[in-house]
Amino acid sequence: MNRNPILLVEDNPDDQTLILRALKKNNILNEVVLVRDGVEALDYLFSTGAHQGRDPDLMPQVVLLDIKLPKLDGLEVLKRIRADERTKRLPVVILTSSREQQDLMVSYDCGVNSYIQKPVDFNQFSEAVRKLGLYWILLNIPAPK
Amino acid sequence: MTRPSRSLPTPDFRALFESAPGLYLVLTPDLTIVGVSDAYLQATMTKRAKILGRALFDVFPDNPDDPGATGVSNLRASLERVLRNRTSDAMAVQKYDIRRPKSEGGGFEERYWSHANSPVFGKKGEVAYIIHRVEDVTEFVRLQQQGLEQSKLAETLRSRAQKVEAEIILRAQELPDMNKKLLATNEELARLAAIVESTHDAIISKTLEGIVTSWNKGAERLFGYVAEEMIGKPVSILLPPDRFDEEPEIIERLKRGEHIEQYETVRRRKDGKNLDVSLTISTIRNSQGCIIGASKIARDITERKQAEEALRESEKRERSIVDSAYDAFIAIDSNGVITDWNRQAEVTFGWSREEALGKLLAHTIIPPRYQEAHTRGLKHFLETGEGPVLNKRIEIAAMHRDGREFLVELTITPIRFAETHIFSAFLRDITERKRMEAEINDHSIQLEAANKELEAFSYAVSHDLRAPLRGIDGFSQALLEDYAEKLDAEGKDHLHRVRAAAQHMGQLIDDLLNLSRLTRGELRREPVDLSALARTIVTDLQKTEPDRQATCVIAEGLIVKGDPNLLRLVLVNLLGNAWKFTGRHACARIEFEVTQRNGTPTFFVRDDGVGFDMAYVGKLFGAFQRLHDRSQFQGTGIGLVTVQRIIHRHGGQIWAEAAVEQGATFYFTIGVEKTIAV
Hints:
The complex is a heterodimer. Chain A has one domain: 3-Layer(aba) Sandwich (Rossmann fold). Chain A contains 5 helices and 5 strands. In chain A, helix 1 crosses helix 5 and helix 2 packs parallel to helix 3. By secondary structure, chain B is of the alpha+beta class. Chain B has 20 helices and 26 strands. Chains A and B meet through helix 1 and helix 5 of A and helix 16 and helix 17 of B.
């Protein structure tokens, strides 16, 4: 199993807990790096700010990105990821409450790899996280460095 | 050949000539008398010394007492012919009175003459002299006039036989020549006559008294009278009663020697119909130059007049159209001078038509700061044929007479017109429209703001209201999983209810968002095959409960014009409801068909399920309204609201008929013009 971390960008503590619970429940044992806003997400990816000194070559297996975030929203984070040579091929999955057409269209326009709406029903949510983990950690082959 | 004449003495030719028995005058080309025979002097009661070296017509003027005297003019014409044609010219018997010497009482004596004039050529072949030879035939004529008895006449003639005989021989020799000339003249006359006869115009001649003397075929055609009816009659027959004054006036003008050119008037035909004619009238003069009549060419201009009238009518009509136009209409010439200005232009710009015509456009409606640009643009167009403002709708500032500026919408069209250009322009004061546009714009901005707000609200609902529900559901589930052994059955049941409630609210939020989405976004209009849509939906429904005994009847070829996604939602809801509310019956029948209601194709979905009490039909299409217990039938109460909103957005209607346990029928229309085929 690929041991690169999963970057979870999520500001809602309940969702953080539920996602981590769902990952654990589904035996996805990769390290989960948890950041709470868009700026911190970019700091982590580019080894800047609070994440200065981090090995910049170690990229996450997948980024789970919420849209509504403090400071810099998820769509803006996505644009910066795609605009940078180092991260432009990084798998990014939007994981959000929104099903607004606008969000969907902008996300895909910006090159998101997948878009998942968080279901209210935890069983469904858990199932979604299981499939997501299975797919991006086990099945998907990332771009070579 | 030698001639013996040299030895002969030269005769005195002058003496010989002067004593010759004939009556001879010798004239120079300028008609001065240079020689005369004694016989001539005797016959004309003159003396050689008194006439030699004098001008012919000073010596022999017309008799002033005879107003009809033609002697001088005829003789002059004959002599001129000799000079011109260089041939002899004989004249018919001519009355030419002779002045009687004072010694014999003075005055004039009536005389008739037979003349012949012959040229005498000089060394260079020029006409050096004219020999004028006359025969006094006064007696002969007088005898004839007096109507003397044959015998007396014969006797007198006999006594003069010798003289006349010689005369006849001479004249006979001249005849072939004369005939040839006559023939040529006749031919010329015939040709002219043919022209006169064949021309389409009426050619009439009349005396100064207005009596018709000739009348050609054209005149017959034009006026309906034949020549025999008109010749000798007054030309005033042709005058319509209201124009009786015209003829005397024309005669007066003719008498003054005026030539009347293309005088447009009205004449009456024989059949009483009036004709528009154009007259050209010239005077006819006799050889003395006296006006003795007039020739008139009349041309039928009825058609032209009618065309002119039609043109005037159409101009009048155009004028009234232009004047009644709601837009101001202005035309200018290539100098920028106003040539047309309609009523609305008067209202819009404050200048009356009379004031505006002839003024420069630049000085009337163009604000001073644009005047130079206007002049430059006009010049540029005339030089290059280019004009960026031409042939399209533009908005530009214009000026009222009182100096007030306002916006006009303007179209200028250049029209090529006889080597130059005119420019026609329609202008409309758009002050009010601009104000309304601004108002609408304000409203749109407000509406847009409201929509933005609504969208932000929807977004917040979508995103923020769902997140806590996930917490409630997720942690309830965590409790159930992690603390199962610490909870009794009731505790677990409570938690299950918490979860169910949270999930239901999630569903409500989703449905509400869908509903609000329906009112936003654009409505597509394209052909939608409702039959095909319905078949797919029913197939899906049957898959969910394959064991149910349900007969589904779907009419073929129900095609409408509308938004495919939204119409799909309509059928999903209606067919889904039909499926749901027949679920408790052992076997069910669901139909989707069309009928005509008031000429409008009306679609309906009918089931034989639980139906509902028509007393509650008013609640049917209200949001979150349910007619059935949720424990019996699942649902959020949003479905029919959604359906109704979609139908209304398509311009259609929806209603229902039902009875408890006897099924329900939902009817809907899409609007007549949106239906392609049924």
